[in-house]
Amino acid sequence: MSAGGHPAGAPGTQPTRGTRVAPGAQVTPERVDRLEAAASVLALLADRTRLALMEHLGRGEADVTTLTEACGAARPSVSQHLAKLRLAGLVTTRKDGRRVVYALGHGHLRRLVDEALNVADHQLGSLPPHD
What's the start-to-end Cα distance of the chain, in Å? Predict the structure, then answer.
């Protein structure tokens, strides 16, 4: 509870951690949780190797050997990155004989990665912004 007796993040209370809120926007616990979850996803994707893995998985399932070749990182590194993505629920696994096959957790992730790469294309290619 805040000093005023309201739960942290309840309507009418001040945002925490220096967060700025647009005038009239309510800071609800649900909104704070949603923003924290989204920030966690973006933080995981803010690594070049994990982003490369997610980009490749956006085209379909793959095993560790294929993913290692696709992203150019060492196999132990790829395995560690995949473990982080799996723990966060961003990728799923299934067994295919002795192989473990990875896939994206859901289509939103493919679209998120695609859009981030589109922004990069615009920045690198000096392309004009658009909707």
Answer: 41
CA distances from 4 to 9, 14, 17 (A): 12, 10, 17
Return d(Cα 46, Cα 40) in angstroms, integer: 10
Name, in order, each residue with C-beta under 8 angstroms of 108's C-beta and a sequence gap of 6 or more.
none
Confidence of residue 9 (pLDDT cuts 50, 70, 90): very low
Q: pTM value? A: 0.77
- pLDDT tops 90 at residue 78: yes
111: left (phi over 0), alpha (psi -120 to 50) or beta: alpha
Residues facing 94 on adjacent strands? 101
Whether residue 8 is predicted with pLDDT greater than 60 in this model: the reply is: no
pLDDT tens for 22-36 read 666 688 999 999 999
Cα(119)–Cα(45) distance, rounded to whole angstroms?
Answer: 14
- Looking at residue 105, the DSSP 8-state letter turns out to be S
Whether 86 and 105 have beta carbons less than 8 Å apart is answered as no
